[in-house]
Amino acid sequence: MVIFMPKKKKPTEGEETKKTEVAVTTKKAPESKKPKEKLTALAPAAPQDLWRAFDDVFGRFRSDFEDLLFPSYWDRALSLLPETRVPAVDLEDREKDYLLKAEMPGFKKEDIEIEVKEDSVEITGTAGWKYDKKEQAYICKERACESFYRMVELPEEIKVDDVTANLSEGVLEITLPKKTPKQKRKVAIK
Question: Measuring CA to CA, which of 32, 61, 149, 185 is 20 to 30 A from 132?
Answer without folding.
Answer: 149
